[in-house]
Amino acid sequence: MRISPNLVPMLVVALAVLALYWPLMYLVNIPVAQRALDTGAALPCQTAFECATQLRSPVLPSPQQLWNGFGNLMLPLNSPNAIPINAAVTAFETVVGLLLAGVVGFFFAIGMVASRAFERALLPWIVASQTVPIIAIAPMLVVLLGQYGVQGWFPKAIIAAYIAFFPITIGVAKGLKSPDPMALDLMKTYNASPWQTYLKLRFPASVPYLFTAFKVAMTAALIGAIVAEISTISFQGIGKMLAENSRASDVVAMWVIMLSSAVLGILLVALVNWLERLLTPWRRAAGGAAVPAKQARLSRQEGVG
């Protein structure tokens, strides 16, 4: 079986992390195991070195413990306590939040590019909104929406959107400002309306920035959804599982859930990458570079004005 060249760096990093994980695991677990043996705790081992991989609440679980933990939390797939169904709920909240953030961020970005006064008035408040701890906002937002009968997954999606709209707004605004000044002057020469300039020049030029912003925003939305699930009353989701196992002091399960959320984040960003390749085939043909002058020539050929 042939391995994709794109996977080789990832595999190298994974092997390096695994090679470093073993000695680090023993380094942090042996003192804990020794203290447990000194207090006379009933452990299925005789030495601290042996017990380092068999602690019920290790600082770092052993690979075997992680493997067993994945097995316990993955099956059955339809179980309310299994990772797959809870990850699907969190992924749904994340994607909906990202779409909401995309709509809001896109219109904010257009306004910021169209009006310098609007940008100066809005940008400080956008920045300030991201300095408020989401863990403090989430419960208040859920209570507020609950008064209007909005419950379930939608408040979590709104919180995810709240975290994600900032990188989308900034990224799209930068993309809309990216066309070459000569290309913008050419559009003015052909008496193009502002809408035609956006449609034929600014929007195409912003596509690379848009997908880059969506990749950053996707991870932010995922974090927002998980934090919202932790800090509010949730019956499903990765955050709900983290909160439950934290209260139960199940360290191995918490590590398994955290690793699963990392995998979920990778898959969601991979989805954005796939959509980028699907929707921007011209970028692959051009080596991924935006060519504003070419866009201007195409606009001239189409006869704007």
Written overview of the protein:
It is a single chain. This protein is mainly alpha-helical and 305 residues long. It folds into two domains: 19-60, no CATH class; 83-302, MetI-like fold. The protein has 13 helices and no strands. Helix 3 (63-74) crosses helix 11 (251-279) and helix 4 packs antiparallel against helix 9 (194-231). The longest helix is centred in the last third of the chain and has 38 residues, at 194-231. It is elongated and about 85 Å long. The protein starts with 6 loop residues before the first helix and ends with a helix.
Low-confidence stretches: 288-305
Largest sheet: none
**Order of secondary-structure elements:** HHHHHHHHHHHHH
CATH topology of the largest domain: MetI-like fold
Beta-strand level of the residues, as a percent range?
under 5%
How many helical elements?
13
The chain-level mean pLDDT equals 83
Descriptive key words:
MetI-like fold, 305 residues, 2 domains, 13 helices, mainly alpha
Compact overview of the structure:
Helices cover 76% and strands 0% of the residues. It is mostly helical.
Give the helix/strand layout:
Elements: H1 7-38, H2 48-51, H3 63-74, H4 83-114, H5 116-129, H6 134-146, H7 154-176, H8 181-189, H9 194-231, H10 238-247, H11 251-279, H12 281-285, H13 292-302
Helix pairs in contact: 3-11, 4-5, 4-7, 4-9, 4-10, 4-11, 6-7, 6-9, 7-9, 8-13, 9-10, 9-11, 9-13, 10-11
Organism: Meiothermus taiwanensis
Subcellular location: Cell membrane
Family: Belongs to the binding-protein-dependent transport system permease family.
